[in-house]
Design goal:
heterodimer, A: alpha+beta, Rossmann fold, six-stranded mixed sheet, five-stranded antiparallel sheet, 9 helices, 34% strand, elongated, B: 12 helices, binds adenosine-5'-triphosphate, binds magnesium ion
Chain lengths: 366, 298
């Protein structure tokens, strides 16, 4: 059990990396606090597995340090780190029974026979493996094998952290739900730091207290699911989290007014520091853009209406820019023309992709 | 589910039958034919029934005694070869690099002995091991060890065994290497996470994953060593005395040296059956481990 600190961590698989592109992980500074349930979220190839493997010691970072509490473990082997990791695809030891598989990590660490037996029974009942404990692991289904892999990850109660690398990829959807809540329960019961890698946002948001979003080898935002939704620190987060993702519109900002094409949007905050060379964008989630019958508001053309179950989403065009907007219940729109009303509290301004804070202003600009 | 019957399949199968019949079944039948007859040359044959077989399998007869001792020699030879080459091949495969340019280098170096024709291998070692001009023989004698493979049976055996190990261990190693390469990295990573020792990694991951290729390696090495002919023939000619007269050498002596076609035919049939039987035993034992496991679970 430990707090894990990543200090100026960077990794390149190539020898002699030169440009930023050579790095699978760009510089990362991050602290995983003891007992947290983290989700590490990001698209394929952004370096999630690399980061986990560095934490567990399977990969040695090119630069930077890994600390468990105050101990520098960068040069320690995986075995010496006392950490558990579960991989994307099931790994079972073919010649052993399920029971022996689950006991293997404990046996290798000379845990006494009675404690091992007790622990194996506990884990098996948590994961519903009791029935098959005495069968050989080799010819079980992929689901079962992955449960065994999970079990081996969970069986040591004293680890610094448990790392899960997309552990439920091969699992059936209905079982997925169940296992995720089991993991959550185990987390509550044991107070162990857990880092759960996924590229599925619902999985991340349901498992974790804190979500770490990675993009292209860097951590772009860390926060609670609400924070990620309400205040994306990067246009990538806005786009990646939420379905549909945030609307990102190129714009020009003067003081507290944004110009999108020919439309004017008034802002809650004043932005004086934006320089001309930067790429300025306005971001707002579809949930905060309301479609209304033609009238006051920004004029738009409707292209399509999607019913996504819990809401209706209109795909519209504003000054030639595509946009997603929500349609409030009980409103029906005739024809193609409509108006948009933006909730000014949820309009964010981004410069080169990063959120700009702006200064609070009392009044509203025109 | 019923599979549609397609009579055109015969079109592809029949030529194969025909070729197998001409190349294997007919010659084999000729051998069977010879094995029940006696000949005094001049292409005259006389019916002898199972006489040769009786004589062959009766150790008190001269033929039977000769057969039994060659058989024992050959079995001993195969056993020694398997006991050395299989563990050695596994060890070599385990110590080969897994990536980088050295992989190609290793593979090429190891393939070289496999590409040398048998009689050349025999000749190489015949010269190499000579006490007067051979590098190996000379050095060994110089070291104060009395070594002479043409005079001393033990020396002759050692030379043949070392030669075969040199010639064929890389086959076992290459097969094992292929088996090892097919193990996904995740297994090794999981083993490190689980704190497995080097030995545990070998016995719980590598060896089980190599079982299939090992079966092939054992079968190939058994058959080959049990039928070994060319190299010892070139190296020792079966001597000194009869010390290295393996079944195949015995057989050729009988058939071509003495022109005892009947005896030789009977002997080759028995020889053949022994090989088949032993291969069957290996195969059943090694695959049964799998079957056993499944049966217990079912
Ligand atoms: N062993 C390796 N050698 C060289 N490059 C690698 C290696 N492993 C990963 N990479 C590269 O590093 C980058 C990050 O890979 P990584 O596996 O960490 O991504 P990921 O976020 O886990 O992706 P996924 O969601 O597909 O699992 C990728 O561009 C990948 O091609
Ligand atoms: Mg990955």
């Amino acid at each position: 059990m430990a707090r894990i600190t990543l200090d100026h961590l960077a990794h390149a698989y190539k020898a002699n990396p030169r440009t930023a592109e050579d790095y699978a992980l760009k510089e990362i500074n991050h602290v995983w606090s003891q007992g947290g349930a983290y989700a590490l979220l990001g698209p394929s190839g952004c370096g999630k597995t690399t980061l986990l493997n560095i934490i567990s010691g399977l990969v040695r970072p090119t630069r930077g340090r890994v600390l468990f509490d105050d101990l520098d473990v960068t040069d320690l082997s995986t075995e010496a780190r006392n950490i558990a990791q579960v991989f994307q695809f099931p790994v079972v030891y073919d010649t052993m029974t399920v029971r022996e598989n689950l006991a293997f990590p404990l046996k290798n660490r000379n845990v006494s026979r009675e404690r091992t037996a007790r622990r194996v029974e506990e884990i098996a009942s948590l994961l519903d493996l009791t029935r098959v404990l005495d069968r050989k692991a080799s010819n079980l289904t992929a689901d079962m094998k992955q449960k065994i892999s999970l079990g081996r990850g969970l069986v040591r109660p004293d680890v610094a952290a448990i790392l899960f690398d997309e552990p439920l990829t091969v699992i059936d959807p209905h079982l997925k739900w169940q296992l995720r809540s089991t993991l959550k329960e185990i987390h509550r019961a044991l107070d162990i730091t857990m880092i759960y890698v996924t590229h599925d946002q619902t999985e991340a948001l349901t498992f974790a207290d804190k979500v770490v979003v990675m993009h292209d080898g860097a951590v772009v935002q860390t926060g609670t699911p609400d924070e990620l939704f309400e205040r994306p620190a990067h246009t990538f987060v806005g786009h990646f989290i939420g379905s549909p993702g945030m609307n990102i519109l190129p714009c020009r900002v003067e003081g507290a007014t944004a110009f999108v094409g020919t439309s004017l949007i008034s802002l809650r905050r004043t932005y004086r520091t934006l320089s001309d060379g930067e790429r300025i964008e306005l971001g707002i989630r579809p949930e905060f853009v309301r479609l209304q019958p033609k009238g006051a508001g920004l004029p738009v053309q409707i292209r399509r209406i999607d019913d996504i179950g819990r809401a209706r989403i209109a795909r519209v065009e504003m000054s030639g820019r595509p946009l997603a907007a929500s349609i409030p219940d009980g409103i029906s729109i005739e024809g193609n023309e409509a108006s948009l009303v933006l909730d000014p509290n949820h309009v964010h301004i981004y410069a080169n992709g990063h959120l700009v804070a702006g200064e609070a202003t009392g009044g509203h600009a025109a | 589910m019923t599979k549609p019957l397609n009579n055109r399949a015969w079109f592809f199968v029949l030529p194969v039958f025909a070729i197998v019949a001409f190349s294997a079944i007919l010659p084999l039948m000729t051998v069977v034919n010879y094995s029940v007859q006696d000949t005094f040359g001049n292409n005259q044959f006389f019916w002898n029934g199972i006489g040769w077989f009786q004589e062959l399998l009766d150790p008190s007869s001269q033929l039977g005694e000769q057969f039994l001792s060659s058989l024992m020699r050959t079995l001993l030879f195969s056993a020694i070869i398997l006991l050395i080459e299989v563990p050695l091949g596994i060890a070599v495969a385990l110590s080969m690099p897994r990536e980088g340019w050295t992989v190609a280098l290793c593979l090429v170096l190891m393939a070289i002995p496999l590409l040398i024709p048998w009689n050349v291998v025999g000749t190489i070692w015949q010269v190499f091991a000579r006490g007067d001009i051979g590098l190996l023989g000379w050095v060994v004698n110089r070291l104060g060890i009395d070594y002479n493979y043409t005079g001393d049976p033990i020396d002759a055996w050692v030379t043949i065994i070392v030669m075969d190990v040199w010639h064929w261990t890389s086959l076992v190693a290459l097969l094992c290497y292929a088996g090892l390469k097919s193990i996904p990295d995740a297994y090794y990573q999981a083993a490190r996470i689980d704190g497995a020792s080097r030995w545990a990694v070998f016995s719980t991951i590598q060896l089980p994953k190599m079982r299939r290729v090992l079966l092939i390696a054992v079968l190939l090495r058994f058959m080959d060593s049990f039928m070994i002919y060319t190299e010892p023939f070139v190296l020792t000619g079966g001597g000194p005395g009869n010390a290295t007269t393996f079944l195949s050498i015995d057989l050729v002596k009988l058939a071509l040296g003495q022109f005892d076609l009947g005896k030789a035919a009977a002997m080759s049939l028995v020889y053949n059956l022994i090989i088949l039987a032993i291969c069957w035993v290996f195969y059943t034992v090694m695959t049964n481990v799998d079957a056993e496991r499944e049966r217990i679970e079912a």
